[in-house]
Design a protein that fits this description.
The complex is a heterodimer.
Chain A lengths: L4 E4 L3 H10 L3 E4 L5 H6 L12 E4 L9 E4 L3 E5 L4 H6 L1 H6 L1 H7 L5 H4 L4 H6 L23 H4 L21 H7 L3 E6 L2 E6 L22 E7 L6 E8 L10 E10 L2 E10 L6 E2 L1 H7 L6 H11 L11 H18 L2
Parallel strand pairs in A: 1-3, 2-3
Antiparallel strand pairs in A: 4-5, 5-8, 6-7, 6-8, 9-10, 10-11, 11-12
Helix pairs in contact in A: 10-11, 11-12
Chain B lengths: L3 E7 L2 E7 L5 H7 L19 E4 L2 E4 L12 E3 L12 H8 L9 H14 L5 H7 L10 H14 L2
Parallel strand pairs in B: 1-5
Antiparallel strand pairs in B: 1-2, 3-4, 3-5
Classes of the chains: A alpha+beta, B alpha+beta.
The structure holds flavin-adenine dinucleotide, iron/sulfur cluster and FE2/S2 (inorganic) cluster (2 copies).
Chain lengths: ~325, ~160
């Protein structure tokens, strides 16, 4: 592994100061994504050789999970996925989130992996993760997935780069209308997760709006909505654990059995978590049954443009949307 | 690369190591502290051979820097036995022939022992989920699950 310098940050302020000072400094939380990246020595014209690791897990209070009926849930970005899965406040009030945080990786990784790290983890495109492929995302001038092996790549919204967003937690955050609290040298701001992730059309080298010297300090989820229903589903290659081929977080607000409002978000299909307003439009004001769920699923994938090896994902995404709507509505 | 001092507490003993900060926790525990029960299989978080406990929670230590182990109670496979007597899970693996080459076993046992501590009577599915991050390439999982079930049954 490349030489690194290790700095433990006692406060968020210390962390952003260190990041602002050193252009090759990177925040490290559980390290379960970043160390794999560094061990593989991934670099490029637009991908600095991170060699100063600023440990943020040393920040006191950074992992706090707080709930109140009025304000909803506040999650310190350093809470581990296991912390969240086992938190009563989460299980009782946000079953969608409790389910989503139980899906990534193995217990041994969920025990160290933080929610902040899960949201900000880098994509798993095998060319991106291979040091010898100088692709667009690293500052090169080619996408190897277009002419190469692309069975796990994007079927929607790809352009220049065809990664899929790897997080199981991100779609649940969008479905729950969550917000990100970001701290940087200029102060603090709160941004809805619907504006947090950016695709290659906006900037091919990044997956979200965080600047080099900014950190995600807190995730905020509004109070639970009465008469809302939800479902989280994920399809993987291996039975035990694996990144999603497709996953889906569905949130519905029902009124006398009809859909008053909904958020349907998939990962594994596009470079960012993909909110399907097309599917949402189909179910609005209606009662969910098998036929309507199928119609919503078909509508959601109308714009799909699969690559040479991944047309199978279109059918998987449709099936998941259908199952997820029926499960959430209890139909 | 300048070495730094790190303070680790492993199996109840305090150690001060002077190592490069890019060393992963399992490497330092093996090469500096000399506890070689913890293995490295993949180095990428996939196989679980490097599983040890941080404050009682099983983690893949190949994706942790030595600095991330500071301030924590680290427990390795060497720390499970009490007064020279093997941990019940260790005994059960021997009795049930739940090991062949043994390479995956320290990590497997660390996951299984944590599971049984938190959930003394897991279902077969819960056992399989508990060891989901531990790959075994030769024993196969049937005997391993049997051994873990036997410990659960014995404590009933
Ligand atoms: C074998 C394996 C399988 C996996 N499978 C899945 C899966 O199926 N589904 C899934 O969703 N994930 C999966 N993951 C990813 C896993 O969930 C993440 O590695 C983990 O959550 C990252 O958390 P961490 O604290 O270890 O992050 P780190 O590795 O410490 O950080 C990851 C990245 O996020 C940045 N970062 C971390 N915290 C912050 C913050 N607060 N502010 C700004 N930037 C920050 C870091 O700088 C770094 O770039 C898998 C990982 C492995 C190794
Ligand atoms: S899909 Fe994106 S990350 Fe993968 S090779 Fe193409 S440009 Fe690089
Ligand atoms: S060596 Fe750590 S998971 Fe394989
Ligand atoms: S006993 Fe050989 S890998 Fe498990």
């Amino acid at each position: 592994m490349r030489p690194v310098k290790y700095l433990a940050a006692p406060t968020w302020r210390d962390a952003i100061n260190a990041l602002a000072k050193y252009p090759t400094a990177k925040a490290i939380a559980g390290g379960s994504d970043l160390l794999g990246w560094i061990k593989d020595d991934i670099t490029g014209a637009k991908e600095p050789q991170w060699d100063i690791l600023v440990d943020i897990r040393t920040i006191k209070e950074g992992a706090a999970i707080r709930f109140s009926r009025n304000e909803g849930l506040r999650i310190g970005s350093l809470a581990t996925l296991t912390d969240l899965e086992s938190a009563k406040e989460v299980q009782e009030n946000y079953p969608l989130l409790a389910s989503a945080v139980g899906h990534p990786a193995s217990p041994g990784i969920r025990n160290v992996g933080t929610i902040g790290g899960n949201i900000n983890q880098r994509p798993r495109c095998w060319y991106l993760r291979g040091a010898e492929f100088d692709c667009y995302k690293k500052g090169g001038d080619f996408c190897f997935a277009v002419t190469g092996k692309n069975e796990y790549h994007a079927i929607l919204e790809g352009e220049l780069c065809y990664i899929v967003h790897p997080s199981d937690v991100a779609p649940a955050l969008l479905a729950l209308d969550a917000k990100a609290k970001i701290l940087g040298p200029k102060g603090e701001k709160t941004v809805p997760f619907s504006e947090y992730f950016v695709g290659p059309r906006v900037d091919v080298i990044r997956e979200n709006i965080l600047q080099h010297d900014e950190v995600l300090t807190e995730i905020q989820i509004p109070p639970p909505v009465p008469s809302s229903k939800s479902s989280f589903l994920k399809v993987t290659n291996r039975g035990v654990y694996d990144f999603a081929i497709v996953n889906i977080a569905t949130w519905l607000k029902l009124n006398n059995g009809s859909v008053e409002d909904s958020r349907i978000v998939l990962s594994g299909v596009a470079p960012t978590p993909h909110r399907s307003t097309a599917a949402e439009g189909v179910i609005k004001g209606k009662r969910i049954d098998e036929a309507l769920a199928k119609q919503a699923a078909d509508q959601a994938l109308v714009r799909a443009r699969p690559m040479s090896d991944n047309a199978y994902k279109v059918e998987i995404a449709k099936t998941l949307i259908r199952r997820s709507l029926l499960e959430a509505a209890g139909a | 690369m300048a070495k730094q001092i790190f303070r680790l507490k492993v199996n109840g003993d305090n150690y001060e190591v002077f190592v490069e900060p890019n060393r992963c926790l399992h490497e330092v525990i093996r090469d500096e502290i000399g506890l070689t029960g913890t293995k490295e299989g993949c180095g990428t978080g996939d196989c679980g051979a490097c599983t040890l406990w941080i404050n009682g929670a099983p983690v893949t230590s190949c994706l942790m820097l030595v600095g991330e182990g500071e301030g924590a109670e680290v427990t390795t496979i060497e720390g499970l036995a009490r007064d020279g007597e093997l941990h019940p899970v260790q005994k059960a693996f021997i009795q049930h022939g739940a090991l062949q080459c043994g390479f995956c076993i320290p990590g497997m046992i660390m996951s299984a022992a944590a599971l049984l501590r938190d959930n003394p009577h897991p279902s077969e599915l819960e056992i399989r989920q508990g060891i989901a991050g531990n790959l075994c390439r030769c024993t196969g999982y049937t005997k391993i699950v049997e051994a873990i079930e036997a410990v659960a049954a014995g404590s009933r």
